[in-house]
Amino acid sequence: MKTYKDLPDDGGSNIVGQVTQQVNRLQKRLASVRHTVAIMSGKGGVGKSSVTANLASALGLRGHNVGVIDADINGPSIAKMMGVRGQRIDYGDDGVKPALSPLGVKVMSMDLFLKDDETPVLWEAQTQKDAFTWRGTMEMSALREFLSDTEWGTLDYLLIDLPPGTDRLPNLVDLLPNLGGTVVVTIPSGVSQLVVKKSLTMAKKLLNAPVIGVVENMAAYVCADCGKTEDLFPSGHTEEMVRQFDVSLLGKIPFDPRISIAADEGSVFVDQYGDTPAGQTFFGITDNIRTFFE
Amino acid sequence: MKFLCLECNTAMEFKETATPDQGSLTAIFECPDCFAEFAMHMNPWETQMLKSLDVQLGGKSEAAQPMQMVRSFLNQQSPDNLTAEAPTVSVEGGGKCPFTSVVAEAFQEPAETTGPVWTPDALARLERVPSFVRSMAKTGIEEFARENGHTEITTEVMDSVRGNFGM
Lengths: 294, 167
Fold this sequence. Notes:
The structure holds 2 protein chains of 2 kinds. By secondary structure, chain A is α/β, with parallel strands linked by helices.
């Protein structure tokens, strides 16, 4: 009896060929993107998306062509933070036109497809029961379409805002074997760093994905009146962690309530408050990322 | 997956899909030597997995539309997505079987049966809506019908929402 390998194809479906075609489409699209950067955290609630929005905008303000993909399919927030919510999905000659932020950053997010604020991401199915068996694959296909079917044009940087957790980075590396690098966002708390270490291990040791460095968010509080800086959390853990993993500390962003206010308003903090300590730190991190690729 | 005719020791070939039944997809394979056929019934989860990969049994006869998977299967989309026109994509090396979107069609029937009832004329007209927006169009029309107290969806009801969906 013939075995699996003896049979030349799968009877005409050519599933492998179909997947290869998807990969080719993706590679063709990203050929005009110089650097792809994944922003990840491991732990939720550390301000990763806010950091992504500000870094993308800072890169734009430095004169680069920048795109952002919100890879948090179920909890998209980038569109709101970058002030592009409500922009209409539109088609160009070669795909879907991304939303455009006031600073000219191109944005693609599931948020642009959803009906309203309250609508969760639900996929058409006979039943949602046992959806765990296929939902992850559906989300990865959505991310692949965001990458390959968006008219990015020529970009210097494409930032990919990953959802919390360590599981999406391997999926992304499957899609983008030539991923330029990862930026890992943490806060000084021990709990955050416990999880972030897993992300670093995943990126550096298991996937061999280049780690650009670590960003410490909410590093300290700067008094708006007297300018005195005080720690929000016990400090020093992040330095210890970057030494342990032999990665760079790209910057420590002080807490500034205007970052959150700007995100809620869809106006980017670095554009409005670029000369504040937090704004200067964002630009410093941006320059470190540029240096990494030079 | 590959299938072997044990009688002939020959690889079986995909022939066609049968009408989807409550979320399951049936694929029929045939031996090119003895013409024996068999049907593979996929359960709804297997069918959904196939759909999530955005691949088609029997091969694709046309290139995928931009964001085809998201537009076809995301529930509760912005009305803008329903009216936006996707560009025509040229076909390169199409598959041998021209059945398109059959997996998607496996999911056209909503799980609940308490919604408005479609008349045959209305259903026939719905079939003329491009496949990649059909499910969203259907959802939108049903929502419109419910919101406006229609227990039956007729072509007249569809006319009322025609402007929204371009049918």
